[in-house]
Amino acid sequence: MPMFPRAIAASAVFATLLGLPSMADQLPPDASYRPLPTQPLDVVKAEDEAAKPGVMQRQRQLFEQRYDLSDHPIPGVMMSGGRKPVQGGVRVKLPAGVTWDSLAQMSPDEIRERGLLPAGFLPLPHVKQATGGQVFPNEEIDEIQHQEGRNLRRFDVDFDIPNRFTPEFPPPIYLTTHPELGDVSHGQLLTIKNYYALMVGVLTPVQIEGLRLLLTPFPQEEFNQTEDRKSADQSLGVTCLDCHANFHTNAAFHQTPDVRPQAARFRIDTVSLRGLYNQQIHGSKRSLRSVEDFSQFEQRTAYFNGDNVSATRKGAHLPDRTNQVAMMAQMQNIIDFPPAPELDPMGRLDPAKATQQELAGEKVFMGKGQCSTCHMPQISFLDNNMHDLRLERFYKIGQTVNGMVILPDGPIKTFTLRGIKDSPPYLHDGRLLTLADTVEFFNLVLGLKLTQPEKDELVAYMLAL
Fold first, then answer.
1. Helices and strands in the chain: count of H runs, count of E runs
2. Does residue 232 sit in the same domain as residue 268?
3. What is the pTM assigned to this prediction?
């Protein structure tokens, strides 16, 4: 008799709905938990290193099949720090024989039955879906190694998104408490080694303590002392700002902690912490309603895949709600958006400063494009709600891509559009590389029937936010 009959029964129902073999045959009854290692670290490491070229090649092939990865920056458009150009154009590749206009004329049922949804609109799998875990871009790895001697490099996988489609590094830092100072990072990545010298005299003691905690490494699933880590050397762990570099994002990715089994866990791109003071919903799926809850809960979710058993084994950090979590929240709540000189205090374009194309884009945004329904200008271009786009109307559920079972996304929170040019790639899993891709995505999913000039106007408008 199985140890966990209800879990196996649920898995069998799940498989039946997908038209797959019974998951009772595919997965152990403890599939909700990460299995303990059955081989010594040196054996696992050697096997992972031998498999790594094939793993990376498979992911490269997926990217090349889905996207145009060439270097085509938008002329004269840089990210807020002025060091990195913004990539332009639609990069998602169309299936043979269709155009964006012809696709937009089809019904979801027709697109699904004919298999015509562009692959770049489907969920993006983790580079190594069966293992998952945090993966950092090389710029972050190299700078942390240089400053702290701490190694964020995994021996089993590398970062998979081409550098031209990631945020500038290090990103600038803007504070609500000192708007007159502009970028207070001085072009440096905040770490435990330099934060005090950079921020003393600018932050309050409470904020400095919160910053210290956000920059202190704590054990994490792939970076820790135990034999099932994915770092070659024993590691102190990771910090909050290893992903949220300078309180923004470096495009580091992970998997949602809120879904099991492993094959169904979707990829999550690191979100920016800019403008957190106006956000009342945290976590792409969990709908946490305070930054204090988020800061505390992440110690068992982002750090340990939502597995409290693993957290206990590896050394969970349990921050004190009053004396630590509150200070971490205080620091996060003073991070501002980059300046947007064309916007007025209510988030609308100033006609005296904006171009005609940007003004036309604002009109589409507020009207035909339906963008402002969720991205409300007066509250930082969001609505503090979760929405289900029901993308599964356009594809067949249950197909497997690089080890990930493609399922419905379900409700996902609305992300802010302020400073959006600084935050590629887009959507919760980073499946869209440019703003032009996002326009085509929503034009299809929402049935907007936008013209090409209207699409271009929308992109121009978002670049001004």
1. 15, 10
2. yes
3. 0.93
The answer on 56 and 72 residing in a single domain is no
DSSP 392: G
Q: Domain of 296?
A: 62-463
Asked if residue 67 and residue 95 are part of one domain, the reply reads yes
Rounded Cα gap, residues 167 and 455, in angstroms: 23
Mark which of 22, 44, 61 sits at the end of a domain.
61
Using CA atoms, how far apart are residues 428 and 266, in angstroms rounded to an integer? 9
Distance CA 409, CA 428 (A): 10
> Is the predicted pLDDT of residue 9 greater than 50, yes or no?
no
Q: Going by C-beta distance under 8 Å and a sequence separation of 6 or more, which residues neighbour residue 110? A: 116
Extract the tokens encoding 378: 């007066």
For residue range 195-229, what is the model confidence (pLDDT) as tens digits? 999 999 999 999 999 999 999 999 999 999 998 89
Beta strands per DSSP E along 161-222: 174-175
The DSSP call for residue 278 is G
Residue 88 and residue 38 in one domain: no
Amino acid sitting at position 69: L
Q: H-helix or E-strand containing 331?
A: helix 326-332
**441 with 433: CB under 8 angstroms?**
no
Structurally, the chain folds into a number of domains equal to 2
